[in-house]
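Technical annex B. To support the medicinal chemistry partners, we prepared a structural model of the target in complex with zinc ion, based solely on the information shown next.
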Amino acid sequence: MRGRSDAKKHTKMTTENKDNIELKPCPFCGEDPELSTEGACIEIDCCVSMSRQKSDYLDIHERLQYDNVEHKFTDEVEKKVLDIVLKEWNTRHG
Ligand SMILES: [Zn+2]
């Protein structure tokens, strides 16, 4: 009897930030961009840069979860925004 096939999931990490989100190399030069998620905005920097306000992607309830001491949203909200912004980056074309 055969065991279950050992399906390994390889998640390529190009950032040390959050689990299972992949930041693809820059579509213009192929380098790994720099990701900054501090404060109220997310920035992806390379030869081009992309800057997004986190609150643009959040509803009113999520916006209220901003922690003025830590200067960030809850992990859940942060992850949601990061996910959207990374997808946006990952689908841009040179
Ligand atoms: Zn680049």
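Notes passed to the chemistry partners:
Residues 34-90 form one domain.
The mean pLDDT is 83.
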